[in-house]
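Deliverable D4.2, example record:
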Amino acid sequence: MRILNITAQKPDSTGSGVYLAEMVRCEVAAGHSAAVICGIAPDDPLPFPSCVSAYPVHFETDEVPFPVCGMSDEMPYRATRYRDMDNKMVSCFRAAFAKRIERAVEEFCPDVVICHHLYLLTALVRSMVSDIPVFAICHSTDLRQMRTHSLERDTIIEGVRTLTGIFALHGEQRGEIIDLYGCESYSVQVLGTGYNSSVFKASSPQSQEESELSLLYVGKIWEKKGVGCLLDAVDQVRVPGKQLNLCLVGGHNDAAEYQRFTQQAAACSAAVEFAGRLETHELVRAYQNADIFVLPSFFEGLPLVVVEALACGCRVVVSDLPGIRPWLEGHVPDAPVVFVRPPRMRTANDPYPEELGPFSERIACAIGEAAHLAPFEGDMHSLTWEGLTARFVSFVRPFCKG
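Output generated by the structure prediction step:
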């Protein structure tokens, strides 16, 4: 098959970017032809082999004179918030991507188009491409954008409703998509997420003091990811005979907030390291050397980092957000995962302030519980990117000509 992959964002750096890049890798490995339309900054490299046809839109140029648009309001790189876009910016965005869509369809001749995010670019693709099947994958951030402001809302809903099909990360998200966009239930399927099994795997950890308990967080260093609550929690954990250390992996884009975290960490009884963004081989080593992976987010889709952590043998503590528990229990029922009830939210993005203290206490209790679980050694073969891409291809192939 000839598969055209489309995202408005950078094709790396975030969960949805990794999702696209890994699908492209697996498409090529399986013998398909792949092309990509994406948004990048002027000096960004493209993380694809030369056999992949790329049609990038360069932001921060005369053509599009503002940074790449981000599906989260705070991205790990310089980005434009959709809520801040005016009519002129939307017109620039549409014109630039329309040129790439037209060119890619003419030159690459795709059998199928797969868009990432049920949002502005996907609606544009559907309005331009009517004689080729167009599918889209939801990544949760798109749903949050739709709930928090009204940019091009009616246009986006109409475009999403007319897609050939939609893929959700999990069952609960499937219901959200149907309700929010008014889609027919038969058009929305669950695809899930995946991991790179040749990279993320358990190995013998480096020598570590028996008296240490190593915690790991991977993600944006951001309040809404629960980083502040995690730092509060590590001061409350009591595991007899164990000294805690916490490694925080990820970038940040709010200097003042990051400084507050470093000051908070300096006052912690646990040793806290801010490792920044790591290369893949360094990230794998961090997973392999951690006892417990902690992801205390206030909201998530289906976090890839949890799957990667389990694949590397970690025990996991994660917020009990919609869809995550049933998906994990359905695919890796024996995984050593402790779920933490998240704080009540007053908006789509912000919890009630009085909920944060009790949430930190629950995280601390969950870490203590996870410390007594055995490291994970289960079978995760069904969750590989290869398996996910094969499921995607088997579903879309009947819709394609020839």
